[in-house]
Write a structure and sequence with these properties.
Elements lengths: L15 H25 L3 H21 L3 E3 L14 E3 L6 H16 L2 H18 L2 H11 L6 H11 L6 H16 L4 H14 L10 H13 L14 H27 L22 H25 L18 H4 L1 H20 L5 H13 L2 H20 L1 H15 L5 H17 L3 H18 L4 H14 L10 H11 L5 H29 L16
Helix pairs in contact: 1-21, 2-15, 3-15, 4-9, 4-13, 4-14, 5-6, 5-7, 6-7, 6-8, 6-10, 7-8, 8-10, 8-20, 8-21, 9-18, 10-21, 11-13, 15-18, 16-18, 17-19, 18-19, 19-21
């Protein structure tokens, strides 16, 4: 009969539910594949050991075959050989082994990121141990208007990165409680906080411990090409500060329009631990509010004093010869100011609230911060050896020259080159979740290579941070992924690794696309520096 619907199975429209299930199944399969591949990798410490051994053997083999490259640096440049050829140095002969033995300790103690991170974390440790940072996060999230709760949680997650793991330990569980108390799905709150803390890892209005860590590695890599090159902790500050607002907005949009609607209405019977539904948000006590007020005032006073030393043309922390902020003692000593910025307010908060009664409590706070870095120090020891071996062997220089020549020959330059680099970093991050470990491995290759194609290390580092951050939330290799899983299971007992990864995938895609677009506009359209005194091109134009 004309106009009637065709019988099912004879030209009928495809079953939308079946298509959705098929797509979901393919996505789950892809995510499980990523997890399986990631699980094949050893711990980053062991990975550095294996790579160091492989590097030593490779240096001997390539040296035997006389592998070399033409040195593109001008005659007279420090480190350039007289014949203008970069030769592979054998590190397994007598001279090479002697060099390894003699420098094993100094490789470690002279590794630039080590000292800067330790100093910065001493101050952050005081602020964290006193309870100031935790109280500030609670106050920020709990006092936000209901319509802005999601946005505030994502923003607070980004800002929490100044205090290392505090966002994972405090904010993510707190966000789930807040969403449940508002009648919303607790996993949506968890996802929003996780997106801010981990997906927005490199965005912040303040400089944190990750900034000196990455800049130190970048500086070591840049010196393969330019032995005098310096990269400060503030190298990406402008770009990352603006990125804070971009990631906050994208996190809010994805939570409200994609993730929470897809989760549907929360069923309390899904909870693995019903007691978690009874958790209540603790409001700030009067003494905590008083502590935050006084610590905030101390921060303000410190910032005003600091401004007095750098804003006036004759400021004492400006460059003595040029009178500029670029290359000044202020920027070179930025880690010291990070320490003071957190240490003094943290101590004041602790004295007012009673969490720090005497000087011993301050010492204990700093000791606790150092104890939390035990695995980092072990990692740095082996990363420092790998970096030194890589530099001594000249493999980094040869790979950089060869790679830069190849990229130039195929015409891959400009924005597309940097976008490709960002995507490579995002994929590598799926397998190696540690930002410092990944950058320690890849920086000696990509920083010199991209420098030879005309880009400055500071800008290259900013591009790396985009790729590294955006896939943090979808890889089981991220060190806190298990903790997030544990919190999620308490609210929904059938939550699996694939479930969590699929829930976070929209954030990852939105952050990657949005951040790359901002980077493109920032660097290639507006031509803005990514940080104070940071260059975009190498050599500077």
């Amino acid at each position: 009969m004309q106009g009637s619907n065709p019988p099912e199975g004879e030209g009928s429209p495809p079953n939308n539910d079946f298509e959705v299930e098929a797509k979901s199944s393919r996505m789950q399969g892809f995510l499980k594949g990523v997890e399986w591949l990631g699980n094949l990798l050893p711990h980053p410490v062991i990975l550095f050991v294996w790579m160091s051994v492989f590097l030593l053997v490779l240096s001997a083999v390539l040296s035997f075959f006389g592998v070399s490259a033409l040195d593109p640096r001008p005659v007279g440049t420090t480190g350039r050989s007289e014949d203008g050829i970069i030769h592979v140095v054998n590190l397994l002969n007598g001279e090479g082994l002697a060099r390894i033995v003699e420098n094993l300790v100094t490789n470690f103690t002279g590794f630039v990121p080590l000292g800067t991170v330790l100093v910065a974390l001493l101050g952050v440790g005081i602020a964290e141990r006193s309870g100031m940072i935790s109280a500030a996060l609670r106050g920020l999230v709990m006092n936000a208007p209901k319509k802005l709760v999601t946005l505030t949680i994502v923003f607070a997650g980004i800002m929490s990165n100044t205090a290392a793991e505090l966002g994972y330990v405090v904010l993510i569980p707190l966000a789930a409680v807040i969403f449940h108390s508002l009648g919303r799905h607790p996993l949506a709150g968890l996802a929003a906080a996780f997106a801010g803390v981990s997906g927005g890892y490199s965005a912040n209005l303040l400089l944190g411990t990750v900034d000196p860590l990455l800049s130190g590695i970048t500086q070591e890599a840049a010196r393969i090409i330019d032995p005098a090159y310096t990269v400060g902790a503030e190298a990406n500050w402008y770009f990352m500060a603006v990125s804070t607002f971009l990631i906050s907005g994208l996190g809010y949009f994805v939570t409200e329009k994609i993730v929470e609607p897809s989760l549907g209405e929360y069923n309390p019977k899904d909870a693995d631990d019903p007691s978690v539904l009874d958790n209540q948000i603790e409001s700030l006590s009067s003494i905590e509010k008083k502590g935050l007020i006084w610590s905030g005032l101390s921060m303000l006073v410190f910032c005003l004093l600091l401004a007095w030393t750098i804003v006036p043309a004759d400021g004492i922390l400006r460059h003595a010869e040029t009178g500029l902020v670029s290359g000044s003692p202020f920027l070179h000593g930025i880690v010291v100011f990070i320490f003071v910025f957190f240490a003094i307010p943290g101590y004041i908060y602790g004295k007012i609230t009673g969490s720090m009664k005497n000087n011993q409590d301050v010492v204990d706070a700093m000791s606790h911060a150092m104890s939390s870095l035990s695995i980092y120090i072990v990692l740095v020891f082996f990363a420092a050896q790998f970096t030194a071996f890589f530099n001594w062997s000249n493999l980094g220089s040869i790979m950089a020259v060869s790679g830069a020549t190849f990229l130039t020959d195929i015409g891959l330059t400009g924005p597309f080159l940097l976008v490709g680099f960002i995507l490579i970093c995002a994929v590598v991050n799926l397998m190696l979740g540690s930002a410092s470990a990944q950058w320690a491995i890849t920086a000696p290759i990509f920083v010199p290579m991209l420098m030879l194609t005309g880009y400055a290390p500071e800008m290259i580092q900013a591009a790396y941070r985009i790729g590294d951050s955006t896939t943090n939330i979808i890889t089981p290799m991220m060190s806190y992924f298990g903790l997030i899983m544990a919190v999620a299971i308490r609210y929904k007992k059938d939550t699996g690794v694939g479930t969590l990864m699929a829930m976070m995938l929209p954030y990852s895609m939105a952050f990657l696309v949005g951040w790359v677009f901002l980077f493109w506009i920032w660097v290639f359209v507006l031509g803005l520096p990514v940080g104070p005194g940071s260059e975009t091109f190498y050599p500077a134009r």
